[in-house]
Design a protein that fits this description.
The protein is mainly alpha-helical. It has 31 helices and 18 strands. The protein starts with a helix and ends with a helix. The relative contact order is 0.09.
């Protein structure tokens, strides 16, 4: 859109020049007669003027383009005034800063050293971006790219409509500003800017709160300096290396009493410096450490990714439906052999004596195993009020529990460094707690994990991470096989990432696939490889996601790793670890006590009963959740229409009669069993019928030119007042990743009929 706007504006200028009989044939002569419209206050981002400045300094015909237009007679050349006397532009409302004596008069030489191309995703071609859309874990960075591109286009369109292409010909002659140059300026600025704290006093994090000594002042508005940061010539040319970096940045030290005399004495110490703290060989590259960053952050900000990056992580979803006891394992679960035989490491079993004993324990533990289930009765019977109360008590983040209680999923992290998300661990501990332990816990002030509970927790965590791992592999296989013409192995068993099916296998393991395709555009630095091309970057991003899940699985499979990883984290969180095994007869005696029989919560029951409003109530979670499938809303947002037979009454009547014959008892039991089967068949039939219901298609609308103060609730209220609340399914306003500020546009999802009307 912005590219078309630029072309249209250039054509209008050409037509106006033609009508002027040659009087405006020179680029530096202002063109009259072209309409313009000033941008509303706050409509243009603070970054936009800086991008225009970079373009001016880099592509100006002048050898040393000036940094300031102070001194120009605006009454003669019209550089600062608009055509209509009633209008006022920035020259009337914003005080213009005068250049300091020691400030450079031009940044042209520096701007011409900037690279002509930076491989940020905002510069990638459409076919290169398609790899991000091919997998569900790539949708999050893809949304970031789309949001940034929309913001850039919005800024440029506002500037063009305000007349930047024809009102200031001496600064921006015709052809100077194009869409390609605008994107280039954004990529250069994003990849080379440093935080403003680099020039603040040591220990200060904000220019607003920075202390100034006598005689010192911050010329730039502090809030703008905090938001934009600074560009430092030469330092911004250094590449990243986490361990071999030789450069550290030393921030100025604030004088003790803050007076000018002491400042003059400590002038050399007060200046920020780049210090070489390691010896660098002649002719070798000098590196700087960019900090702890995941590959997603590196790709979006710098345009490269580090292979085997231990700072990688993956956002995954977990809800109450993911941890339900007393249900049968999924039919597609192929890991039961490992669980029932005892395991030491991924894909390996052992017949050691201790594992023989483990087999016996696992056989007894099977009735306590926890799986995922969307069946309402199973959810209610497992997630009782007491279990929910314990979960609420244990969670430190009070924002997570309300979401879980509503039947939604909380978002947690799987990490490549072997650590586990503490909130996810606590949730898993409560979800896997056997009922007799839960009743005992109600009488204790400290949560204790028995050996039985530890085994169930270990087994469940491996099951949970394995399911996520396999779903991510399936998503990658579906999205990448057409592009690379390879079929991926999508199971956690048989080596997982390291699967090697041999020459005759129809599929290949991820590691083999990655080695074949990811090294096509990489560079080596200090024995580490960095992906620099779009395909290599995306594959390295996905590799980090898979390794986050794979590392989480490996930390559970062996007993020593489980003890040093999960159990150590739980001890640090305050859990008491017991080594005393509870006797079977004690468990059976406790299980004979009547269960509480309370339901999950009214909120969950209400959520499952909303049969026809899936799209409205199932709000879109973080796209990095690898559970996302096309029918997830239908699964989590609808309720089975049970046609339950009153078999419990029949059972009670038959058991209370002490004069029944053996045959009568058998008939009664058979009748009850048949009734139970009929109930199950009815429930299955209702599920199938519900899946056949065709939901109306929805359309996501892009809403531009929003005020930066607009929030999603404002957007919802506006559209709900016009089209009805039932026709507004979702409202979302993207925000800046670093500042949290709105990007000035949003998305509204509506049913197709309402969307077309809008």
């Amino acid at each position: 859109g912005a590219e078309r706007i630029v072309a249209k504006a250039e054509q209008e200028i050409t037509n106006a020049v033609a009508k002027s009989d040659g009087r405006s044939s020179q680029n530096k002569v202002k063109v009259d007669g072209i309409q313009h419209r000033l941008a509303p206050k706050g409509a243009i981002s603070t970054r936009a003027p800086f991008l225009a400045f970079i373009i001016h300094q880099r592509f100006s015909n002048a050898s040393n383009p000036p940094v300031s237009s102070v001194g120009m007679d605006s009454r003669n050349n019209g550089e600062h005034h608009v055509h209509d006397k009633g209008e006022k532009n920035a020259s009337h409302t914003v005080p213009q800063q005068k250049s300091l004596p020691e400030s450079p008069s031009t940044f042209g030489p520096y701007a011409r050293t900037l690279p002509p191309y930076v491989s940020l995703p905002i510069c990638w071609r459409r076919e290169e971006l398609s790899l991000l859309s091919s997998c569900i874990s790539g949708s999050r960075p893809l949304e970031e790219v789309a949001a940034t591109t929309f913001q850039l286009a919005s800024d440029l369109i506002y500037l063009i409509e305000a007349g930047i292409l024809h009102r200031f010909p001496s600064i921006f002659p015709r052809g100077l500003i194009t869409w390609d140059r605008w994107v280039w300026a954004a990529s250069v600025f994003t990849s080379r800017v440093f935080p403003a704290s680099y020039y603040l006093n040591d220990g200060e994090s904000s220019a607003k709160k920075s202390k100034a000594i006598k005689g010192e002042e911050i010329v730039s508005p502090p809030e703008i300096l905090d938001e934009l940061g600074v560009m430092i010539p030469l330092l911004d040319m250094l590449n990243h290396e986490s361990e071999a970096a030789q450069i550290t940045w030393s921030r100025p030290s604030f004088p003790n009493n803050g007076d000018a005399d002491e400042f003059n004495k400590l002038d050399s110490n007060y200046q920020p410096k780049a210090i070489l703290h390691k010896r660098a060989k002649k002719g070798s590259q000098v590196y700087k450490n960019y900090g702890v960053k995941s590959n997603q952050s590196m790709i979006l900000k710098y345009g490269f990714a580090q292979m085997n990056n231990l700072d990688d992580s993956l956002k995954i979803g977990w809800g109450l439906m993911d941890g339900v006891g007393g249900v049968s394992p999924p039919e597609d679960n192929e890991l039961n052999d490992i669980y029932e035989s005892g395991f030491n490491s991924v894909g390996e079993t052992s017949d050691e004596p201790e594992n023989t004993e483990l087999k016996k324990l696992v056989g007894k533990d099977k009735k306590y195993f926890v799986y995922e289930s969307l069946e309402k009765n199973s959810l209610n019977s497992w997630w009782t009020e007491s279990r929910l109360a314990l979960l609420e008590q244990m969670l430190a983040d009070k924002k997570v529990f309300p979401r879980l209680k509503k039947g939604e999923k909380g978002m947690f992290w799987a990490n490549s460094d072997g650590t586990y998300d503490s909130i996810l661990l606590i949730s898993a501990v409560v979800a896997t707690m056997p009922p007799h332990c839960l009743r005992k816990q109600a009488k204790s002030s400290q949560l204790t994990l028995t050996p039985l509970h530890q085994r169930i927790l270990r087994r469940y965590l491996h099951y949970f991470f394995s399911r996520k791992f396999e779903k991510l592999l399936q998503s990658l296989n579906n999205g990448l096989k057409d592009h690379f013409n390879n079929e991926l192995w999508t199971k956690a068993s048989d080596g997982g990432l390291q699967y090697n099916g041999g020459d005759g296998a129809s599929s290949i393991g991820w590691q083999h696939f990655f080695d074949m395709h990811a090294y096509s555009s990489t560079m080596e630095a200090e024995k580490r490889y960095y992906a620099v091309g779009p395909d290599s970057c995306v594959l390295t991003l996905y590799d980090g996601h898979l390794r986050s899940l794979h590392t989480s699985m490996e930390g559970i499979m062996s007993e020593p790793k489980f003890e040093s990883g999960v159990m150590k984290q739980l001890k640090d969180l305050g859990f008491q670890i017991s080594a005393e095994e509870v006797e079977e007869d004690e468990i059976e005696a406790a299980d004979e006590v009547a269960d509480e029989g309370d339901n999950v919560t009214e909120a969950i029951e209400k959520k499952t009963e909303q049969d026809g409003e899936e799209d409205k109530n199932c709000k879109k979670e973080d796209p990095m959740d690898v559970d996302k499938e096309g029918n997830e809303c239908e699964k989590s947002g609808s309720k089975p229409k049970d046609k339950t037979e009153k078999n419990t009454t029949t059972s009670k009547n038959s058991s209370s009669s002490g004069q029944q014959t053996g045959n009568q008892k058998g008939q009664s039991q058979t009748s009850a069993n048949n009734s139970g089967k009929n109930n199950a068949n009815d429930r299955n039939r209702n599920r199938r019928n519900r899946k056949k219901v065709e939901r109306p298609p929805a359309i996501k609308l892009h809403i531009g030119n929003l005020s930066y103060t607009t929030v999603p609730d404002d957007l919802f209220d506006f559209f709900a007042n016009i089209f009805g609340r039932e026709n507004v399914l979702e409202c979302h306003i993207p925000t800046e990743r670093d500042t949290g500020k709105s990007r000035g546009f949003g998305f509204v999802t509506m049913p197709e009929t309402a969307a077309l009307q809008a």
